[in-house]
UniProtKB/TrEMBL annotation:
Xref: PROSITE patterns: TAT
Name of one Pfam family that matches: TctC
InterPro entries with a match to the protein in the record: BUG, Bug_dom1, TAT_signal
Family: Belongs to the UPF0065 (bug) family.
Lineage of origin: Bacteria, Pseudomonadati, Pseudomonadota, Betaproteobacteria, Burkholderiales
Originating organism: Variovorax ureilyticus
Protein name: Tripartite tricarboxylate transporter substrate binding protein
Length: 333
């Protein structure tokens, strides 16, 4: 006959054994997925039309991931609503590592400030994988516009009927960077939203708009070809790809620095082993000499796979751009 204490011990042992077995069962599929991942094509979603920095960088990254992981990585453009359509698609995708997001800093840090009823939460709905790179925006105009430099553009803007330049923008983050330019220079903008940087370039070249404060990779070829004039860059240092273009700080606005960045994200709930494999692989890619050279050619500084630092950066930028929007009296729409 069993004593109560013996029965209690036996019950506890059985419970512990069952819990341990359940842990092994739940861990086994994740472990297998990490070892086999990826065993089918992976989709990388970009929330903009082809031709802009996020699209260019996503395609460079996809080629490198395909080479290292021996599986297809396919870039899919889901443009619209300041990249919110693509970002939301990934946020609601199956969290298995087979749908990833290359997001602009705007999609993660300014959409929450400038868009009402945003369908995704940039902090709660994603797993950070890597900061892919950072870069300046470039103040560009058509070569036919009668200005030679940044000071000329400031003067030209003040001669417009409403005192504003029509400025093309593909994303909310570019709007806020342009507003920081406005705050230091006095130049005012009427922001016109496009579906990507490529269409903004076409708008500037076609005379639909007067300026494009745009990502450097999207404008380099047109600048070097003489079709666009690059008047200034928004980072504290000059761009490696456009070394002759002065910084806004150099032009009489000391301390000015407004970089833009791009990140690789996964849906919240993606298995930890899969995330670890992606972070390790992407971290190696960002240290690859060929990748670094290609990014420098585009005017980008490579990032890293420090997920915790990326999380802090997202939170910090949301706070910063919130202050800029408040100062510019920009209300969410």
């Amino acid at each position: 006959m069993h004593t109560p204490s013996a029965l209690s011990r036996r019950f506890v042992l059985r419970a512990l054994s069952a819990a341990f077995a359940a842990t092994l069962i739940s861990f086994a599929p994740q472990h297998a997925r990490a070892q086999d991942y990826p065993d089918k094509p992976v989709k990388i979603v970009v929330g903009f039309a082809p031709g802009g920095t996020n699209d260019i960088l996503a395609r460079l990254l996809a080629a490198k991931l395909q080479d290292k992981l021996k599986q297809s990585f396919i870039v899919e453009n889901k443009a619209g609503a300041n990249s919110a359509i693509g970002n939301d698609f990934v946020a609601k995708s199956q969290p298995d590592g087979y749908t990833l997001l290359v997001s602009s800093s705007g999609g993660l840090t300014t959409n929450p400030i400038l868009m009402k009823s945003l369908p995704y939460d940039p902090v709660k709905d994603y797993e950070p994988i890597a900061l892919l790179g950072s870069f300046p925006l470039v103040v560009t105009v058509s070569s036919s516009l009668p200005v030679k430099n940044f000071a000329d553009l400031v003067a030209y803007s003040k001669k417009q009927k409403d005192g504003k330049l029509d400025n093309g923008t593909p994303t909310t983050s570019f709007v806020l960077v342009a507003e920081t330019i406005s705050s230091v220079s006095g130049m005012k903008f009427n922001h016109i939203l496009y579906r990507g940087s490529g269409p903004v370039v076409s708008g500037v070249l076609g005379g639909e708009i007067q300026t494009g404060v745009l990502d450097s990779p999207a404008v380099i070829q047109q600048v070097k070809g003489g079709k666009l004039k690059a008047l200034a860059v928004t980072t504290a240092r000059r761009s490696t790809a456009l070394p002759d273009v002065p910084t806004i700080a150099e032009l009489g606005y000391p301390g000015y620095d407004a970089p833009i960045w791009t990140a690789l994200m996964a849906p919240r709930g993606t298995p930890a082993p899969v995330l670890a494999k992606l972070r390790s692989t992407v971290g190696d890619i960002l240290k690859d000499k060929d990748m670094i050279e290609k990014m420098h050619t585009l005017g980008m500084d490579p990032g890293d796979a420090d997920a915790a630092a990326l999380s802090r950066r997202i939170a910090g930028d949301i706070a910063r751009w919130g202050q800029v929007a408040k100062a510019a009296n920009i209300q969410p729409e």
